[in-house]
Amino acid sequence: MKRGISRDFGIHLLGLGRRATVEDYVTAAKAAEEYGYHSVWINDHVVIPTKHESKYPYSADGRPSFTPDDHFYDPFVLLASLAAHTKTIKLGTSVAVIPYRPPILTAKAIATLDQVSNGRFIFGVGVGWFAEETELLGVPFTNRAQVSRSYLNTMKSLWTEVRPRISGASGSETEIGFAPKPVQKPYPPIWFGGETRAALKRVVQQGDGWFPAFVSPEQFAAKSAELQALCREQGRDFSSITTCVFPANKTYFSLDHIRTYRQHGASSLLAPVASPQIDEFVAQLRTFRDEVMVPAKGI
Q1: pTM of the full structure
Q2: Which domains does the chain show, CATH number per domain?
Q3: Which helix (H) or strand (E) holds 134?
Q4: Is the CA virtual torsion 151, 194, 231, 160 positive or negative?
Q5: pLDDT in tens, 95-130
Q6: What is the pLDDT of residues 193-212, one digit of tens each?
Q7: Cα–Cα distances in Å, from 66 out to 75, 127, 195?
Q8: Going along 253-294, which residue ranges are E strands?
Q9: How far apart are CA 240 and CA 52, in angstroms?
């Protein structure tokens, strides 16, 4: 069976803008739960260099929409706060950059968050696009995919094994205890972001789900077909992969467009709700529920 969210709608809290307060996030998450949304998502940056050459993959000119002065909260700490103010809504990272943090500390934060939320966390991940940020956090950018693969394997061991063996700085292995384990078994679902062939391979090899962003229905159909072909090549059951699409474009939410996403494997869609004013953001949540979610029920 697929692990993660069902055929439903979520929201990305990017829509609150880059200067939102923690209170804004809490208000948005509580409203989303009340209105029947299935999930809320937080993105991940730690430091923003004032000058960089990296190209943002989701804009035509390669320039990111954020600035060095914008607010980026630690996603695990912020989601723990949202967990304390909600009861049922899923809480996810979209996406946490795997090489940004040592794997043992990340595994501990996630196990704690999954306990705090009573098993509501979804670990959306990526290997990162921001070379300067990756380097500042201690990982050579060219090695990020290899490092990410190793870090994830370490985390999975910590979450599932009674006495995992971990290599320290000296290279020697030590048997350790790691508790508590996550509520979800064997561990919170791992969803990879990205639409490149390399990203799709990571989904097949290490992921429970796929999180494509800013894709039209036609683009998604093509990439989904590519993912299905990779599954066949590597003996993976495509139906075991949960797919959540972040179209981020209001024009892609007609019933016909939603039907196309669903027909090509989308389990969930993130609503294009956006306003830096929390009252307007909440109003959009309600409007989208009434005008899109309700009519789309059953598609």
Answers
A1: 0.95
A2: 8-293 (3.20.20.30)
A3: helix 131-136
A4: positive
A5: 999 999 999 999 999 999 999 999 999 999 999 999
A6: 999 999 999 999 999 999 99
A7: 17, 19, 21
A8: 268-271
A9: 39
